[in-house]
Amino acid sequence: MKKFTTVEEMEYDSKRLKETACAVCIDTWETRAENQKNHCKFGEGGICCRICSMGPCRITPKAPKGICGADAAAIAGRNYLRSIVGGAAAHSDHGREIAYVLATASRDGAYQIKDEQKCISMAKEFDIETDGRDIYDIAHELGNKALLEYGKPFGTLTFLNRATKERQETWARNKIAPRSIDRECTEAMHMTHMGNTADATALIRQGLRTSLADGWGGSMMGTDFSDVLFGTPKPVNTEANLGVLDKDKVNIIVHGHDPALSEMIVLAAQMPEYTKRAQELGAKGINIVGLCCTSNEVAMRHGIPMAGNFLQQENAVLTGAVELIVADVQCIFPALGPLSKCFHTHFVTTSPKAVIPDSEFILFEPQNALENAKKIVSMAVENFVNRNNDLVFIPERKEKATVGYSCEAIIEELDGVTNSHVDLTGTYKPLIECLKSGVLRGAVGIVGCNNPRVRPDYSHISAMKELIKNDILVVVTGCSAQAAAKAGLLDKEARELCGDGLKRVCELVDIPPVLHMGSCVDISRIVLLASKVAEQWGIRIDQLPVIGCAPEWMSEKAVAIANYVVSTGLDTYLGIEPQVNGSDQMMQLITEGTRDMVGAGFVINTDIEKLTRAMIDGIEAKRAALGI
Ligand code: SF4
Ligand code: MSK
């Protein structure tokens, strides 16, 4: 039986790297989290308002209202909506950047069209003429039309047509169908300005609408246009954990989210002149690895190894073996600035949206993409000679992983096992049959970050192991995907941890029991998968034995995601409490109130064993309601 990496072993490696941190006199998230403990109760409960300068106002039993009269529900509701806006804006702006790249892609430029078929089928969704036209003309019109989705004055988002008819009607009936992406973000900010909405239900409603603008708008564009430009992911083998760093090579880490940067760095690093130069300087070559969601992007398209997830970013630099870490946007610790200064590591930032002290800023734009990528790779190579070998310690642990199960890839894998007497080509019917028969009890999308509030990675890994043991298929994205990868759960050998039913399905289809579907924006793949399954099954999406889970989430993006997953009709299980518990009304609305509108809500429990039990029970309850 395979020996899977345990959380204890990961913690052991982390502890060893903290010794290096001590040696170079730098703090890490562990020490800073310790310094921050006993978090402010008003902040935790969402009942501190600093929306106007009459405040800040804090709600207590003695002072149940702010100076303007806003109560706990109004204050917590406004804060909550603002976090959804923060998340939706970040994801959607990522999608916008990719749409710009698409609108300027060219046959002889740095960015080209890799998936022509997807480009054409998306163009048709936008009513773009495709017959007899050059693919780049189609792509440019598609990019331009997509950019208009951010600010179109009338109608609703085009991608809503991808949802089931029932969902579209639900969204229309509840007046939460998003109009344009920027409009929903702006309107939410307007609503939460001093002296506007104080009704918690209205705030929640706008939260659902804004989150849908992300999940069925900006994020979906980020996913699909990345596929068009860089290729739709197919299963590919890779490795994960810090052991993927190579002490004999020039190590470059790509960090952040936008594949427009990482794709160019990968391309530049493959140019023979840089390998030659690395060898002249005594290295055996160049080793590119990924961190956070960028890691998912390059792993699923190129098999680039995954160094780790969010809370592993400092550990990667602490190995002392990283010549350069380059980042674009989101989830980048400012701590990397001073930390990299303790080593020879270049810390390069590239986006005006993520300017970080103590980094070297190199503006990265479509028109200078390859040129600047080459510059960055060259900086890394020339830096190899500056490595202080006394500080180098790379933990050896790594695991094999198969990544890149896009919806298209899942369908292709299912087609491979379809009974030839029945034409099920291009459908999820085999999956539906497995769910109906009970061979598979259900499916859970486990997503999101890690968070020092809980034992990092433990919640992800323990929940996944328990679910697959209970014949529940798990799909993963974001930092959850890397937690799974580090623990060996994306390896096909993880089938031995499954219940008999799931094991049989995985063997038949030749897949691991935990399927890697991509980065944070790729949760759009999960909602599309669930929608198609519901449609082909002929039931409502909220009836499916399918749920979402974010056991260790931390970012505003996660709040937006959780809300669009709920709005899509999937119950979402959270291992970290949203910051609204200072208002009973808000807690009731996010756990129960949304069920009246969209048929789903949050289930919250900070005890991962109890949360996992609740997920299994939730899936079984859905099955019972369907009579299966
Ligand atoms: Fe206080 Fe109202 Fe101003 Fe908020 S908006 S700070 S509750 S006065
Ligand atoms: S990177 S949002 S820590 S999943 Fe997408 Fe990871 Fe969460 Fe960032």
Q: What keyword list fits this structure?
A:
628 residues; alpha/beta; Substrate Binding Domain Of Dnak, Chain:A, Domain 2; Rossmann fold; 3 domains; six-stranded parallel β-sheet; 16 strands; 11% strand; binds iron/sulfur cluster; binds Broken Fe4S4 cluster
Could you characterize what this model shows?
The protein has 628 residues and is of the alpha/beta class. It folds into three domains: 43-230, Substrate Binding Domain Of Dnak, Chain:A, Domain 2, CATH 1.20.1270; 242-391, Rossmann fold, CATH 3.40.50; 403-626, Rossmann fold, CATH 3.40.50. The protein contains 24 helices and 16 strands. The chain has a six-stranded parallel sheet with strand order 6-5-4-7-8-9. Strands 13-12-11-14-15-16 form a six-stranded parallel sheet, with helices on both faces. It has a two-stranded antiparallel ribbon with strand order 1-2. It is globular and about 65 Å long. The protein starts with 6 loop residues before the first helix and ends with a helix. Residues 257, 292-293, 309-310, 330-331, 448-449, 478-479, 519-520, 555, 557-558 line the site of Broken Fe4S4 cluster. The site of iron/sulfur cluster (SF4) has 14 residues, from loops.
